[in-house]
Amino acid sequence: MPARVPRVIKTEALVLRHRRLGDADRIVTFLTPGRGKRDAVAKGVLRPRSKLAGHLEPATRVEVVLAHGRTLDIVTQAQTLDAFGGLHEDLDRLSTAMYLAEMADRFTIEQEDTGDLYALLHAALLRITRGDGLHLVTRSFELALLDAAGFRPEWRHCIGCGAAVSAEAIAWSALGGGLVCPACRPAHPDAAALDAATLKVLRAIQDGPYEQAARIRLTPPLAAALERVMHRLVESVAERELTGQRFITEARRAGMAATAAAERDAGAAR
Amino acid sequence: MHDRRADATASPIARLIEAFHRLPGIGPKSAQRLAYHVLRAPEEEARTLAAALIEVKERVRLCERCFNVSHQSPCSICLDPSRDRTVICVVEEPLDVLAIERTRGYGGLFHVLHGVISPADGVGPEDVKIAELLARLRDVDTEVHEVIVATNPNLEGEATAMYLARLLQPLGVRVTRLARGLPAGADLEYADDLTLGRAIEFRQEVR
Hints:
The complex is a heterodimer of chains A (270) and B (207). Chain A contains 7 helices and 8 strands; from the N terminus they run βββββαααβββαααα. Chain A is α+β, with helices and mostly antiparallel strands. By secondary structure, chain B is α/β, with parallel strands linked by helices. Chain B has 2 domains: 12-59, RecR Domain 1 (Helicase, Ruva Protein, domain 3), CATH 1.10.8.420; 69-177, 3-Layer(aba) Sandwich (Dna Topoisomerase Vi A Subunit, Chain: A, domain 2), CATH 3.40.1360. In chain B, helix 1 (12-21) crosses helix 2. The longest helix of chain B is centred in the first third of the chain and has 17 residues, at 43-59.
């Protein structure tokens, strides 16, 4: 006999996204620690006096009570546990958090087991909030998410023949999901060169604990190389460009232009 | 099972019910009530409704300056000589223009983005009318000194506001954001931490 579905569940959750439903309602997508990704209707949250609205923003950790509905669950109570206030003070942090939430949403299927994803996303949001390097937090989350979703990239052996790949003449394939040795490279037309320093950091992030990887000093060119590799990899698995990636790049570009303008103004004032 | 989908061969009343049912917020019962109301109403009322529907599709367009919906371009707000041309209020949707106009507390111009940056929904900066706002501000004839970003106080609205602030900084325009706090008639007990935190941070002296 199938187990009876409980009428009400109370769970901690991270809000991934929301979309409008009718005049005043929203469908909110939650990532929970034990019950995977779940959609639920939050009724009346678009009204100014809604008691739920402020507690159901994306990138917020909440405690929710969901009542089992006929088609979708219904949010009956919500209380913020952590609003990750630090995210909202800086566009780079905010756009990174949006990208991580977008990835967590895209790489999961509703009500399927999502393993450690909740803990991964929660840890990443805490790290962004406390001001850790955004490149490292993002790369670490991307690699762990790909691993959890069954797309762990191979950074030690050739994906074609399984041979250990030497530090010279390293190439990698986004479609194949890892390194390719010189002998197998012709079979991977998308293969591109990868420099030894980038590979070393990718291995350190993938294999070591975060705190150890956090000690690596990422120079701007190294951070940019890592970002290019991971964006291509994520794009190839998702089979599309993630809007969050593009927004991070645009926000950074606008930030650099703003800084340059401020410096120009300061120079002119002197 | 009876198929409710109406095609050209269905009865006129069934087609009308189906047409009303497609409108947002109208369920099957409301659609039936509306259809029978039209049926019983004088013919003139039905003709006025039909003409208004056709006219709105034929004549209403986007204003070439502010992208608000209007029957003329530039729209009446952009053409109004009494409006303050030094301030632009940036909103997400045309309905937000109506909401701000209802306050009677704002006399400047508008710019409608027609959306908000939301990576989760696949909407990036290039999918909303941000480039058009920049073009307006870079226009040699512009008198704008301040841009009020009136996007919704949620994650996507905040991200859009912060992105706009960065983009506009090199132009030397003052960028402001609508204040955030507690809505009228609210209950502190149910307020979320962010809103209550901002309300405390930006508290005002009682006069």
